[in-house]
Amino acid sequence: DQETQLKLANAAYDRAILHSDAAALDRFYAADFVFVSDNAKLRNKREQITYMTSGQVDVLAAKSDQIKVT
To answer: N or C of the chain: less Cβ packing under 10 Å?
Structure first.
């Protein structure tokens, strides 16, 4: 069902972040994706993927919980 598919996709996104998987992040982020950092720095899709996979970020865990599909 759709709820299960969405939860599976969310889990795949968590794994992509945890494993610095650039190819997976590329599939998840839209072409016009923009990330705003905690210090208000803007990064486009390519910049964010590079940042997340460059070793600058050490992700110890990535698990979404309390997911509610409405």
So the answer is: C
* Cα–Cα–Cα angle for 14, 20, 26, rounded to 5 degrees: 80
What letters, b where the CB count within 10 A reaches 16 and e where it falls short, cover 32-49? Answer: ebeeeeeeeeebebeebb
- Residue 53, H or E segment: helix 45-53
Region 1-29: mean pLDDT is 95
Question: Helix, strand or coil for residue 62?
Answer: coil
- State pTM to two decimals: 0.84
11: Cβ contacts below 8 Å, ≥ 6 apart: 64
